[in-house]
Amino acid sequence: MVEKINNVLAGIPATLLGGIMLIFSFVLSMQEVYWALDPAWLTVVICGIPLVYLALWRIVHNPGISKISSALLITMAMLAAIAIGDLFAAGEVAFIMAIGAILEEKTTQRARKGLKKLLKLAPSQGRRILEGREYVVAIEEIAKGDILRILPGETIPVDGIIVEGETAVDQSIMTGESLPVDKGQGDKVFCGTINQFGAVDIKATRVGEDSSLEKLIRMVKEAETKQAPMQRIADKWASWLVPIALVIAIAAWLVTGDIVRGVTVLVVFCPCALVLATPTAIMAAIGQATRHGVIIKSGEALERMGKVDTIAFDKTGTLTLGRLEVSDVISLNHNIGEEELLALTAAAESKSEHPLGKAVVAFAGQRNIQLPEAVNFKMTSGKGIYAQVRGKRLYCGNEKYLGEMGVTLAPPVKELLLRLQRQGKASILVAEENNCIGLLALSDILRPEAQAMVQRLHSMNTKVVLLTGDNSQAAAYFAQRAGITSVRAELLPGDKVANIDQLSQSGKGVCMIGDGVNDAPALKTATGGVAMGSMGSDIAVEAADIALMSDDIAQIPYLKRLSNATVNTIMFSISLSMCINFVAVACSVLGLLTPTTGALVHNAGSCLVVLIAALLYDRKFDV
Question: Active-site residue 314, yes or no?
Answer without folding.
Answer: yes
